[in-house]
């Protein structure tokens, strides 16, 4: 890649600003200063301000989303998850985006990446990625919900096809876990609403094989898109 493409692709500066970064000696290819923005290099051999290019093979991270932030790049919608992340990530091209969304009140696990193939793989219905939610509702849960959610015939308001079978486990009078493989809009809340319940708290604790172990709300950790995205 050209040096100006590297600086732009990985969120350091625009291609028009790259000339100044090179002139100021901020970019090196191996041990040598870059001579021109048109010079080509493997991003893995480039350092910027003495540091290797961040995630040259594509970025993948896991975030513990807290309540009160939205999964949007639009600050007009309120505080966003991207305010919890390094600003450079939003300047990558393509920008880092969440794999699916959690609504503002929902907490838990979000994957973030700039690799479109991972977004497609993990959001495509045909891949049936399991997701585990912890739920609190407004009134005591009835055991009959277990069979109803597992039956594959629960129809949500405004939908023409029923939900796929989902595994519900009651963990308390008002609490449960639900594992499903779909990602319909506000699906968990709508499934319970279809049965006469209001979800008062919702947390996603697992996505595929990923968990939030060791992460407090608002914290994130880097993953390896080759090793971990299996």
- Profile the largest sheet: 9 strands, mixed
Note poorly predicted spans: none
Q: Structural class from helices and strands?
A: alpha+beta
N-to-C CA distance: 27 Å
The CATH class label of the largest domain is: Alpha Beta
- Give the amount of beta strand, in percent: 15-25%
Here the CATH topology of the largest domain equals Alpha-Beta Plaits
Series of secondary-structure elements, N-terminal to C-terminal: HHEEEEEHEEHEHEEHEEE
Helical coverage, percent range? 10-25%
Q: What is the CATH superfamily classification of the largest domain?
A: Pseudouridine synthase I, catalytic domain, N-terminal subdomain
Instruction: Give the helix tally.
Output: 6
Shape: elongated
Which terms summarize this structure?
230 residues, alpha+beta, Structural Genomics Hypothetical 15.5 Kd Protein In mrcA-pckA Intergenic Region, Chain A, Alpha-Beta Plaits, 3 domains, nine-stranded mixed sheet, four-stranded antiparallel sheet, 18% helix
Q: Could you explain the architecture of this structure?
A:
The protein has six helices and 13 strands. It has 230 residues and is an alpha+beta fold. It folds into three domains: 50 residues, Structural Genomics Hypothetical 15.5 Kd Protein In mrcA-pckA Intergenic Region, Chain A, CATH 3.10.290; 79 residues, 2-Layer Sandwich (Alpha-Beta Plaits), CATH 3.30.70.580; 78 residues, Alpha-Beta Plaits. Strands 5, 6, 7, 8, 9, 10, 11, 12 and 13 form a nine-stranded mixed sheet that branches. The model has no long low-confidence stretch (mean pLDDT 96).
């Amino acid at each position: 890649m050209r040096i100006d493409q590297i600086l732009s692709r990985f969120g350091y500066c625009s291609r028009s600003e790259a000339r100044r970064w090179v002139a100021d000696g901020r970019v090196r290819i191996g041990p040598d200063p870059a001579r021109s923005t048109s010079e080509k290099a493997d991003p893995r051999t480039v350092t910027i301000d003495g540091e290797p290019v961040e995630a040259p093979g594509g970025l993948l991270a896991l975030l513990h989303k807290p309540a009160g932030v939205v999964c949007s790049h639009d600050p007009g919608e309120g505080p966003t998850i991207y305010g919890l992340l390094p600003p450079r990530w939003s300047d990558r091209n393509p920008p880092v985006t969440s794999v699916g969304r959690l609504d503002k009140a929902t907490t838990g696990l979000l994957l973030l990446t700039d690799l479109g193939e991972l977004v497609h793989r993990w959001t495509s219905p045909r891949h049936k990625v399991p997701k585990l939610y912890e739920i609190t509702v407004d009134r005591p849960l009835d055991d009959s919900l277990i069979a109803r959610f597992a039956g594959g015939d629960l129809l949500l308001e405004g939908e023409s096809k029923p939900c796929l079978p989902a595994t519900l486990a009651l963990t308390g009078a008002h609490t449960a876990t639900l594992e499903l493989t779909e990602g319909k809009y506000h699906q968990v809340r709508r499934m319970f609403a279809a049965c006469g319940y209001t979800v008062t708290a919702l947390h996603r604790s697992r996505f595929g094989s990923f968990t939030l172990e060791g992460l407090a709300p608002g914290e994130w950790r880097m993953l390896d898109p080759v090793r971990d995205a299996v």
